[in-house]
Each structure stands twice: as structure tokens, then as C-alpha cells.
Amino acid sequence: MTVNSELRLRQICLLAYDLEWTSNLLCAAFDAKVVYRDPNMAAGGNLTNTHIRLGDSFLETVCPSDRAWKNSTTQTRLLERNGDCGYMAIVQVPDVSVASRSMAEQGNAIGMVSGGLIQCPGTPGSGFADMKSRDYVLGEPLPKSEGTVAGVNVQFHPHDFGTLAEIQENWPGQSEFPRNKGAYFPAGNAWQDGVESRPHGGVTTGFAAVEIAPRDVDPKEVCARWQRGLGAGCWIDSDEPSVLHLAAGQTMRFVEPGLNGRTGVVGVDLWSVPGGRKTFDALDVCGVTWRLVDPS
Known about the structure:
Layout: E1 8-15, H1 19-30, E2 34-36, H2 39-44, E3 47-54, E4 57-64, H3 66-71, H4 74-82, E5 85-92, H5 96-104, E6 112-121, E7 132-135, E8 148-156, H6 158-161, E9 164-171, E10 204-213, H7 219-230, E11 235-236, E12 243-245, E13 251-254, E14 264-272, E15 282-285, E16 288-293
Parallel strand pairs: 1-4, 5-9, 10-13, 14-16
Antiparallel strand pairs: 1-5, 2-3, 3-4, 6-7, 6-8, 8-9, 10-14, 11-12, 12-13, 15-16
Helix pairs in contact: 5-7
């Protein structure tokens, strides 16, 4: 099967009680560093975050503020139920105008729960000067014009996709792999400056797979929803009906909840560095099991 090379698992998001402790632990475990903290998220007053770069992929951790706990937000209620946990899977798509519509039609068709569009003059790596942002309109194409960078994110309800699901399209340069230095706005627009000098750390080059445990829905059905929603050539082997194949050997696995009852993102596979020493086989951090696997 031919999968569009831009259809990739690009980011995993975690939810934690303690942002700094969790981020520092992840940085140490994966030999990586924080490259971005979203000032707009912090300015909103309910959440703070960090983005850690793993090769050309990103690991985000989100933490509720005291105000969020006082007001009892979605994130605080999820932490009360699950403790530190996996929160969201983010997939890069080649055409958000197509994928946003097809994703919105899946499951109970709850549809888009949020979406945003960002544009600013400049190039990948030049920062966010004069940035403009607005809500995204479902089915809208990403605007692409010379001398600007742009990005769209669209989120969909966990009930339809087993976890909070997000698709992303960014321009220009998202098709460049490896050593991607194209636009990818969730992690800001300056992370590109360190890619040439340090493409990745000594532990992992990025994501190989994500494991999602849906709540009260057959994993095979949720897998099929992702396939129909993402399109772009992703495929399911009839011998493994709960595994979705993306580009470059990446997969999304859908499983029954374990004995702990946790749902959503429960596991992540990481490509080990070719020729490097594996520092671990598996470890549990932030309610997620992380496994190092050999490069495809």
C-alpha cells in the first residue's frame, strides 16, 4: 500500500500534575530538551505546557493552573480520574481541508471540537513576529503564499477516536524528512535552529507508534474510524484489524483498556538511534508505557 509521505504521527501530548518535574524526567529519559513553551496557552490562565523535540517529532506536556483546579476544567477532571496520563495524539495530514471533513464524519459525528489557523510573515525558524490567528472553519484549505508561514490544527472528541485527536497541516516544508526544518507551529517557529547541529539525542529519533485504548468502543472500530478519517493511503492489514499503518513504518495500535482501566494514549513506541546503545527497553512515565524499538 502507498501512504502519502506527509501522513505522520508528529506529536504526542501528556497531561500531568507537575509540569516541571514531568518535563525534566522526560528530557533525561529521552536525552532531549524543551524547545518551546506556548505563551498564548499560559496567557489563557488555565494551562501551561512544554514541547520536547524528539528528532522531527514533539512530545508535549500540559499542566492545569491553580485557576483551572478552582474552576474544575476538563483537564483537572481527567487528572482526578486517571492521574498523570496520555492526553492526545496528533497526526500531520497532507490536506487539512479534506481530512478535517472526513474526520468530522466518523463515529457519532460529534465533529470538530476546536480548531485554529495561524499565519505570519517569514520563513520556518524566523519566529512569530506579526502573527495573526483565528478560528478554523471546517473544510477550509490552508492558505499558502510566498513569504509567509501558516498552520492549522483541528481537534476531535475522544469518544469518536479513543483519545483527544488532532490533525495538523503546516506550510511550508512539512514534507521534508528526515531532519525536517519546515513549519510546525505547535512547537513554535524557532525550534528549527537546532536541527542541523543536533538532529536528535542519543536515545530516540522519534515516534514509531502510539497505543490507544478506547473507552466503551471496539478497538477495531476506532481503528477503522481513523483510517476513514485520515485517508491519504493509510491502511489496515486484515490480519491485524486494530493496527493502522501510516507513512515511514509508523503505526497506531488500538487495544482494550488494561487492568488499571486507563483509556486514551496508554503506550508509545520510539525509534532507537541506529547503532546506538539502548538505554532501556520499556519504562512507565506519566501513565504511558514507552518502548524503544529498532528502526524500521
